[in-house]
Structure formats: structure tokens, C-alpha cells
Write a structure and sequence with these properties.
- The chain has 393 residues and is of the alpha/beta class.
- The protein has 2 domains: 143 residues, Aspartate Aminotransferase, domain 1 (Alpha-Beta Complex); 222 residues, 3-Layer(aba) Sandwich (Aspartate Aminotransferase, domain 2), CATH 3.40.640.
- Helices cover 40% and strands 14% of the residues.
- The protein has 13 helices and 13 strands.
- It has a 7-stranded mixed sheet, sandwiched between helices.
- Strand 3, helix 5 and strand 4 form a beta-alpha-beta unit.
- The N and C termini lie far apart (60 Å).
- The protein binds pyridoxal-5'-phosphate (PLP).
- Pyridoxal-5'-phosphate binds next to helix 4.
- Pfam families: Aminotran_1_2.
- Keywords: Aminotransferase, Transferase.
- Its EC number is 2.6.1.-.
């Protein structure tokens, strides 16, 4: 038989780090090792009671099981627009400026397919969410990384950007509150990004899933006057509404950009299960008290424990970080973040994420997820205290 070989584009990517690492951890657990995972950012508590109630009720409706509109049900589009108005003071026309997504991650692919020709340049943050680069590679665009540095509060260096050859650049990924560094944006940063995008004809995409977590100064790039002309914002219910497995996200922009994305997306999926959309509407109406309890109070306790873990490991960190992770700089004695993360995994049976997976600027950092309860974080701290390295601090 003639050998079957995969498409060339597959050689431009590797399997997602967590996809392989979590298999290894499952094998360790199968051998009884009871690894505590502080890796992935998957909230461990349920959505609001109203959300679950709406899901269950809607599922009993015989008419709820058919294909749904490609653009999402009108109630969900309205609810996303209302949510943007309530929390970000951003006006969006529910008819044509929002597009519900099957998680914001898929939006990264749809935007890339809608805007990038092979060879077009894409500005990608280093460190940054790995999907920006891998999807850019899959669509055969040219990844141009821009550095985020601790000294510059993990914000883009506009002087350095201006010195790059931007003639072929179509798209720039930004992500504030930033993952993995926990850095916040400022209104001034968003203003500069909008001006930069307009000056060079570069679509600015702000990926914004973390604005509710340990953060009360919620910002959207769409707050900048005129931002919609050149910006797209992705948002997500995964983190802020405890719904990571539901795959509920949204894209917001001007009607033309939304239409281009829909042109791609409507050829790929056929909408989302109606009871999930109805339940998402209920979740988008979660009270301020619910958000404070789930997204601020709960994570504040965990954050203290995570800070203790980093201190025990000899890492330094910025205590003003926001979001559901803690990002810390590793001690000089380690070759890189991989060495420390492996040591912690194999000797303490605690999984922490090595920063190199976010780009070489993350080489000397590790990331801890706060999606583990106080008991797990406390146990992880105890285990790490036992580590020989901890004894040497
Ligand atoms: C920066 C960033 N963007 C997007 C996502 C994906 O979120 P969603 O669950 O909405 O696809 C994540 C999830 O970890 C993330 O960290």
C-alpha cells in the first residue's frame, strides 16, 4: 500500500503540552502516586445553581434537541451584549457585533482562518498562550514574536515593535489580564494598542478570559473609543463562570469582522446544544455576590497558599498579579524551568507548569494554577517543604 503521510502543516506543530503531560500524570496516578496537579486552569467548582437549573429544565423540552442557529440563540446574543454593558460599559449590537463560540480557544482558529493568508505576519507575545503560535503555524502564517518583559510590567515595548518590519503583518494577539504572567492592562496600554493597530492596519485581538479572577478593575480593549474598527475581543465563560467543560465563549467586534468569522465558523460547526445556551444566559446574569465569592474570595485564600509554595521553592513573584495563576521566577541555581518543574513532579508528586511552554521568555519562570482546593494546595506545600531543595533554602 502506498504510505499515508499527514499534511505538511502537522510538522509545524507538536501535540499540546498539557495533552502529553496529563497522560504522563495519569500513568503516575495509575501507579498510585497521587500527583497533586497545579497545572491547568480549570475551575474546580460548579457554575451557579441557576445555571444548572436552567440547563436541566431546558433539557426536558422536546424541542430543545435540534440544530441551533449558527449565530447562537437570540437570548444568548442579547445576554452577552448586556453582560459587556454591565461589566465593561461596552455597547455591542447583539444583532451583529457578537458571535457566541464553542470556547474562546476555537475563536483563535476562526480568526486566523478569516484574516490570514499563508505568509502573512502575526505578532504573538513571548511569553504567551501557546495556541496563538500553533494556530498561526497551522494556517501557514509567519509568527513574529514580540517580547514581554518583567521590567516593562509584561507589556509590549512599542519602540521595539515600531522597529520591526510590519509591512506584512495582519494580526496581533494580546491577552490582558495576561496569562501566564498575571499582568494587568491599563486603559493607556489599550489606547496605545488601538492606535498601533490603526496606524499599521493590524487587527488587534485581545483575548480576555481572566478579567474576573482576583481582579476588580475589569477592562476591555473595546472601551477605547473607535476600538471596534480594528479590534476583536475574545471572552470566555470557562474561568469567570466555572464553566470550562461547557465550551462557552464569545467574540465581539464590528459587524464586518464578525461576519467574516461567521463565514468560516458556519462551515465548521453547527451551533451549540440549546439547553447549554439557555443555561449560559442564566450564568451571564450571575449576581455580583456570586462573582465576588467565586472569583475573588475563593481564589484569595488559595493565592496565599500558592505564594507560600513559590517562596518555599525559592521563587520570587509580583504580588500584584491577577488571574487564576501565580507566576514566579525560579532561583538561579536551576538550569531552567523544566528542571525545577520535573524535580517538583518526580520528587514531590506535585505538577507545576514550566514557563518554557509559553515561549523562551518563560524559561526562568514557573506557573501555579489556583484551581485546586485549600487542602490540595496545603498538601502540595507540605510535600514541597519536604523536598531536599526546600531544605537548602
Ligand atoms: C490566554 C487564554 N486564552 C484562551 C483560553 C481558552 O479558553 P476557553 O476555555 O474559552 O477556550 C485559555 C485557557 O486556558 C487561556 O489561558
Amino acid at each position: 500500500m502506498k504510505p499515508i503521510i499527514p499534511a505538511e502543516r502537522l510538522s509545524s506543530i507538536t501535540e499540546y503540552y498539557f495533552s502529553t503531560k496529563l497522560k504522563e500524570i495519569a500513568e503516575m496516578n495509575a501507579k498510585g502516586m497521587n500527583v497533586i496537579s497545579l497545572g491547568i486552569g480549570s475551575p474546580d467548582l460548579p457554575p451557579s445553581a441557576e445555571t444548572i437549573e436552567a440547563l436541566c429544565q431546558s433539557a426536558t423540552d422536546d424541542k430543545a434537541h435540534g440544530y441551533q442557529p449558527y449565530v447562537g440563540i437570540p437570548e444568548l446574543r442579547n445576554a452577552f451584549a448586556e453582560w459587556y454593558k454591565k461589566w465593561f460599559s461596552v455597547e455591542l449590537n447583539p444583532a451583529n457585533e457578537v458571535q457566541p463560540l464553542i470556547g474562546s480557544k476555537e475563536g483563535i482558529l476562526h480568526i486566523s482562518l478569516a484574516f490570514l493568508n499563508p505568509g502573512d505576519g502575526v505578532l504573538v507575545p513571548n511569553p504567551g498562550y501557546p495556541t496563538y503560535s500553533s494556530v498561526s503555524n497551522l494556517v501557514q502564517a509567519k509568527v513574529l514574536t514580540y517580547d514581554l518583559d518583567e521590567d516593562n510590567n509584561w507589556q509590549p515595548d512599542f519602540e521595539a515593535l515600531e522597529k520591526m518590519d510590519l509591512s506584512n503583518v495582519k494580526l496581533m494577539w494580546v491577552n490582558y489580564p495576561n496569562m501566564p504572567t498575571g499582568a494587568s492592562a491599563t486603559p493607556e496600554l489599550f489606547e496605545k494598542l488601538v492606535a498601533f493597530g490603526k496606524k499599521h492596519g493590524i487587527v488587534i485581538c485581545n483575548d480576555n478570559p481572566y478579567s474576573f479572577i482576583l481582579n476588580e478593575n475589569r477592562l476591555s480593549i473595546l472601551q477605547v473609543p473607535g476600538a471596534k474598527d480594528i479590534c476583536i475581543e475574545l471572552n470566555s465563560m470557562s474561568k469567570s463562570h466555572n464553566m470550562p467543560g461547557w465550551r462557552m465563549g464569545v467574540l465581539a467586534s464590528n459587524p464586518q469582522f464578525v461576519q467574516w468569522v461567521l463565514k468560516v465558523k458556519s462551515n465548521i460547526d453547527s451551533g451549540q446544544f440549546k439547553p447549554m445556551q439557555v443555561a449560559a444566559v442564566a450564568a451571564l446574569n450571575n449576581s455580583e455576590e456570586w462573582h465576588t465569592k467565586m472569583n475573588i474570595e475563593l481564589y484569595s485564600n488559595r493565592r496565599q497558599l500558592a505564594e507560600e509554595i513559590l517562596k518555599t521553592l525559592g521563587c520570587t513573584f509580583d504580588s500584584k498579579q491577577v488571574g487564576m495563576f501565580l507566576w514566579g521566577k525560579i532561583p538561579a541555581k536551576y538550569k531552567d524551568s523544566g528542571e525545577l518543574a520535573d524535580k517538583v513532579l518526580y520528587e514531590s508528586k506535585v505538577f507545576i507548569t514550566p514557563g518554557f511552554i509559553f515561549g523562551d521568555k518563560g524559561n526562568r519562570y514557573v506557573r501555579l494554577s489556583l484551581c485546586a482546593n485549600d487542602k490540595m494546595l496545603g498538601d502540595a506545600l507540605e510535600r514541597i517543604k519536604q523536598l531536599s531543595i526546600a531544605g537548602q533554602q
